[in-house]
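Following the same procedure, the fold was encoded as tokens, giving this record:
***
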Amino acid sequence: MSLLLAGCQGGINHGTSSHVSVGASATPPPPVPRTQAQPRPTPVPAPRQQQQPPPPQGETRVQVRPANPQQGVPLGDDTELDVESLAPPPSTAPATRSAAPAAAATTAAVAARQQEAVPPEHATWLDRYPNLAEDLQDQRETIARLEQEVKEYREQVGQLQQQVRQRWGSTAVTAASAHQFVKYTDSYQSRGEMDFDQGVIIVETVDQENPRQRLKEAIVTTLLTPYDADNPEIYSDKSISYSGPALLAGQVLDHEGQPVRWEWRANRFADHLVNNEVQQLQRNGHVVYRVEIPLIANHTEVRGHQYEHLVRDASRRYNVDETLIYAIMETESHFNPYATSHIPAYGLMQIVPSTAGRDVFERIKKRNDQPTRNYLFNPANNIDTGTAYITILRDIYLKDIRHPLSKEYAIISGYNGGAGNVLRTFHSDRRQAINVINQLTPQQVYDRLHRNHPSAEARGYIKKVTEAQQRYRALASAR
């Protein structure tokens, strides 16, 4: 997964780049001689024009650095700015008093006009680089939103952990992740875990009064978890509706070798498991009753097939290769629609609401807000948002890369670690980075991203996605 608190987007809302390093250090020009005020047709003498002291010599620096490069997420053009000398030096010149109230009004008007047109020698970096100032403000707002999301996520996970520790012990907390779906039931005494990396389902209970009945209920709940729930209640023990196709449909075979698709078969399989397959373990001073259920060998492919119509629609809508969408989905979540990471990022394509999500809403949807967690848990919304974000990387952040395959490699890496880190892999200056990429072969571009990207996760990510893409291309050719 990348999608990085991995940074914040530079130029998210304005299409301008924050990947610059600005230094200003120059000797100020000699002071301008004072000018005498011209007589005015009024009995009140005009005030003398106040002379501004020359600014002290110094530097205004904007240092750009990657924001949490180890956290790979779809953040867009993710950079952070370290800004020094944000405010102009304080003035030491004494203020000139007006000779009369009428002159005070005139002085105020003159000062207002002078403030509107700041002389170059007195301008701060905010005056000289308004686009950069806007980018900085955008990044501050993005950071604030991302911090709020992280705070809410940690509060929810913290509440869940507190409940689980009381019943399971301090070292037995299991929670949902990008490749793992965990659902607690029965006042947090039972849980079902789908481990899509290992291809196994683990159902457990610490209920001591009627453990087999609680275990059966948890097995049925896990097997029938829908692949599209409005609210999966990941952080609570509330039940979710069984309506709609099951997430594990076609991926579990019962004791008779038949796929578990319906509630009656799930109940019968659960009866068989609690009567024949229960393991009894000692853990943290608790007796744990446990059942393991293997997934079929090609469970990832079967699960991904559920989203075929959504991928096809998004591919046509945004002119993005279907195999690229599938490959990113598999790498990000193993087709887990309730995938959650600590960034936090959500859903099949692991969208961060306040960065990639907001980028899509503002640029593509023309909305001044961002997607919610439940919006991104919806497979149709998530695939649409993730695919739209690919087009932002392709058509905005990385649009000047000429070779289609080189651009695709940059898009894949940028989806995980941000376009800024992609370019930084080749040169510290954005424009020079594009020039370097355009002088390399696609294989050389791939090699640099795989070996030299500042994020270790991103270095492995491009390999995983391209290998998955080759498999999906082979599947498409075989059909």
User: Anything to note?
Assistant: Confidence is low (pLDDT under 50) at residues 1-115. The first helix runs from residue 101 to 116. The chain is about 45% helix and 10% strand.
